[in-house]
Amino acid sequence: MSTPDEPPYTLTPRVLTLVAEIGEALGRIAGKAGAPVPPALRRGNRLRTIQASLAIENNSLTLEQVTAVIAGKRVLGAPKDIQEVRNAFTAYEAMESWKPWSTKDLLAAHKLLMAGLVDRPGRFRAGGVGIAQGDKIVHLAPPTDRVPGLMNDLLAWLKRTDAHPLIASCVFHYELEFIHPFADGNGRMGRLWQTLILSRWKPLLAWLPVETVIRERQVEYYAALAASDKTGQSTAFIEFLLSALLQALSEAAETDQVSDQVKALIKCLAKQPLTALACMKKLGLNHRPTFRKNYLQPALDAGLIERTLPDKPNSRLQQYRLCLRR
Question: pLDDT per residue over 140-168, tens digit each?
């Protein structure tokens, strides 16, 4: 049973099963890796995280464009979208220095994430806010004067709770969305802060692009939020996020299995850029779908290689080269 200032949730059999399965998946990945996540893969996963988290908020930039922005290259896109990418990269890079239960650090994170995008970055909202779907208000956030107290209570709970970090991170994410403490940026802050909480438990999770799964299952994400609002507790949201984490871990394990193919492609491109057909010839491959699935796309997703014509992905003149800033 929860205390008056403890966020309400229920440990259902599904929650407990998912926690156990995530623990097993982490054990398998750690056992296979035997070492920290390689820098190039960390960078690739972080870029995937940023692109997906911002795409949920209607940012239009592709993964390749996000990669180019971070590399300091010119990208054809809305200035706001480009600013969001730069801000998010700065915030995720600073994440290691923050304490999950610190109000000061939470506000500092929002300031980095929303700089140049809102009038009061790094400060709690000054007015009321509601979430609308069409003409209907689906969530009315608590009054403005309650926000500082509610956030202080939530952060204090996070610091003292003995709940499993997997569960505590999901609860915090939901409660932040419910309180909606900022005028804008609440969704991306919730996802960033959950990653921070999880990284303090297992450093590997700082680099897990769970946001890509949430992006793919965005309808479920919002449905879980709505279901939790309706019941007055975060159980449905916990179940959804844990299932997304498990899926992201499963996909990460599959990525490990194609690392030899990716290494072969990188070796192939060591001296000069090549077309896809030239790469296939050097690798002794004839089946283009296999090459794309097992070699080309994983290397692009990891930020290890890039297109020479990023704004024309289907050009007949397209070539691939090693990323200039790895």
Answer: 788 999 999 999 999 999 999 999 999 99
Enumerate the domain spans of the chain.
13-257, 259-322
The closest alpha carbon to 178, from 169, 187, 168, belongs to 187
Prediction pTM value? 0.78
Whether 13-257 and 259-322 share one fold: the answer is: no
Pick the CATH number of 13-257 from 2.60.40.10, 1.10.3290.10, 3.40.630.30, 3.40.50.2300: 1.10.3290.10
Residue range 269-304, pLDDT digits in tens: 988 999 999 999 999 998 898 898 888 988 887 778
Q: Which CATH architecture has domain 259-322?
A: Orthogonal Bundle (1.10)
Is pLDDT at 254 greater than 90 in this prediction?
no
DSSP states of 41-99 as a string? Answer: HHHHHHHHHHHHHHHHTT----HHHHHHHHTT----S-HHHHHHHHHHHHHHHHGGG--
Rounded to 5°, the CA angle 213-216-218 comes to: 100
CA distance 187 to 180: 9
